[in-house]
Amino acid sequence: MKKVLKVDGMSCMHCVMSVKKSVGKLDGIKNIDVDLKAKTVSVEWDEALTPLKNIESAITNAGYQVIAKNNEEPI
Q1: How confident is the model at residue 68, as a pLDDT?
Q2: For the structural domain made of 2-73, what CATH number should be given?
Q3: Angle (CA) 9 3 54, round 5°
Q4: Which distant-in-sequence residues (6+ apart) come within 8 Å of 72 by Cβ?
Q5: Is 43:5 a contact under the CB 8 Å cutoff?
Q6: How many CB atoms sit inside 10 A of residue 7's CB?
Q7: What does the pLDDT profile of the chain (75 residues) look like in tens digits?
Q8: Calpha distance 65→10 (Å, rounded)
Q9: What are phi and psi of 62, to 5 degrees?
């Protein structure tokens, strides 16, 4: 599964690394791309190992707010 999440509160490379580290700890994560300008986090993962709500929780626990979900593309 691949999904693009709109995330509020990211402003620097520290934010990028924090999100990547938090989400990257979850099982089944294949790819994480953070775009500071667009304020998005693109995640590709194995849905059987980790539900989307766990990815959203990891971002929230890192100190950022998921405000929208877009571009669902089954792999």
Answers
A1: 80
A2: 3.30.70.100
A3: 70
A4: 1, 2, 3
A5: yes
A6: 24
A7: 999 999 999 999 999 999 999 999 999 999 999 999 999 999 999 999 999 999 999 999 999 999 987 655 443
A8: 9
A9: -80, -10
Q: HSE of 62 in the Cβ direction (CA atoms, 13 Å)?
A: 26
Q: What is the dihedral of CA 47, 53, 56, 61, to 10 degrees?
A: -120
Q: How many angstroms separate the CA atoms of 41 and 7, rounded?
A: 7
| Tokens 């990028």, residue located | 16
Cβ proximity of 63 and 70 under 8 Å: no
Domain residue extents for the chain? 2-73
pTM > 0.85: yes
